[in-house]
Structures are given as C-alpha cells and as structure tokens.
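Quick one before lunch.
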Amino acid sequence: MSANAFRPSPVVPTVDFDHDGKQHGFLRLPYSRDESAWGSVMIPIAVVKNGSGPTALLTGGNHGDEYEGPLALFELARTLEAMEVSGTVIIVPAMNYPAFRAGTRTSPIDKGNMNRCFPGRPDGTITEKIADYFQRELLPRADIVLDFHSGGRTLDFVPFCAAHILADKALEARAFEAVTAFSAPFSMKMLEIDAVGMFDTAAEEMGKVFVTTELGGGGTARAETVRIARRGVLNVLCHAGIVAGAPELRPTRWLDMPSGDCFSFAEDDGMIEPMADLGEMVARGQVIARIHGVARTGTKPCEMRAKMSGMLAARHFPGLVNAGDCAAVVAAVLE
Ligand SMILES: [Zn+2]
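Model of the zinc ion complex:
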C-alpha cells in the first residue's frame, strides 16, 4: 500500500452523511488557479437519510456529456423526501463536475476521464482527487451503487441497464437482480473493452452491488430515455428496500456481449454510412456500416461487417469517423 493511502482526501463535504433528513450541499475540492487563488470545485451532492437501513450511492455525470443520469438525479434530489426513505440515499448528479459544466466527456482541467482513473489519488490531478474521494469515502458507505451512463457525444445506444459477469457469482446474481428491478427496455450482460480504472471495477472489487446504464447518447437526452432513467432509479431504490413499494416492472429484452466480436472498430477515416439502425437484427458477415473516403471522388467505400449475429446495440454517433473509433456494437439477444 502506498503512502498516498494514508494521506487524507482534500475534499471537504458540506453535508453530514450521518445526519437524518434531507441535505443539499457540495463536495468542495480546493482548486487553486489563476482565476481564483484559494478557489474550489463545488460538486453538488444531496443526502437523504432516515434512520438505519441500506445506503444507495446514485451517480451521474461520470462522463460530462451524458445527460439522462444528471436529469434523473437532480430531479430525484429535489423531490425525494426523508420520510419516504428507510436508510440513506447519496446523490451525486455530476461526478466529474468540471467535465459536466464543460459538456465534455473528460475534464477540461486535466483531461481526466473519471471512469479510467480509479482508485484515484489524494495528491493527484483534480479528476484523480475526485475518484479518490469516491473510492475511500463514498463507496465504503454504499450497499448498492447505480452509475448512469449514456453514449455521450460520440456514441448512441439502445436504452439498457447493465451489470458485469463477476468471479463472485453471489455478487453477480445480486447485481443482475438490481438490473431486472431497474426495468429498462433492454438489460445487458456487459463486457468492457478495458475495465482497468473504472468506477464499476472499484465498486465490484469492494463487494458492492453495482449497476450501470447506457441510455442513449449523441451528447443529449430524449424524453423516452429520461423517463426510463427516472423510473429506473426509483425501481432500484424500491428493490433495495430503501423506498417502500415494489419496482414498476416493464418488459425487458436480455442482451449479452459474449466476446470482443461484439465490437467493430473503424480502420479508416471518413464519413460513416450506417447500413443498419439501432435495435435492428443483423447477421454475421452483414455489412453494418460503410466508410466513405472524403479526400477525392471515385474511391470505393470500406465495408464494415458484423463479426457476430445479433442486435445493433450501439453505434458511432457523429457523421465523421476516425480509424480506431468504435463504429458499432452488436449484442446477442438472449430471450
Ligand atoms: Zn459514460
């Protein structure tokens, strides 16, 4: 264990996590800079607590250009009252607050990608300091964690709630029960391209029930996906026994990302032409996108073919694509 683990976090919460009632406050992170010598980053946080009981940690804005989570969680923080709760609900609608304010995936301060820098560092960059606070102060308090994501500016997804296949099968089963309770139109057994440094991995390694979402994308939100987020978060709180009542279950289709074959990465730069739309079934070998060179006329487009059969679950969003971009994700339909 490094000496950093013993250094206290510089983050100062203005809320008391052990206090009954509803509190709106901040995680205040000192950030000395040209514009503000003794200034701070003020990350909004709400704590709704009523007696003993389980604790849910609800987060959005892990990436700053994904809006269903913040829209659901700012609203929940405004409307959820302590008398409706048995236990504690910790709400951070915009984890990477500088990125959220800039409308960008990563922080404009240090280019930090919150979901690639766990466990963070108390003496690191601004993004690493936020991650460290979650790692050492907030995650240990939680019994269940719901972290909202969407596709951001560069991806678009069919709306799903997801959990990961884990070595700890009992924990995995509890996570998928929470996914079922969330009740998005799709439920995903999610494979990560690179799980190192993710909030997800940090929570799972701590033995926490962790569920996440991908609810849309394109750097905006839709009425339908915001409704899914708002219903889903209340469903998860009911499932956890923190809010009274049963989850409002809706039909869901289970999807799986069984191997790296689900991802298609562009190998050329150019203009991308979707040859299938989100939610469409595609067969292995089928052309799912074409990339058109834009430097001259007369060049043939490059064809991207599905490496497995299934449903198109995600796609590159902008009209222009670069080599290396994730162009599409095909998921197997389980039922
Ligand atoms: Zn994200």
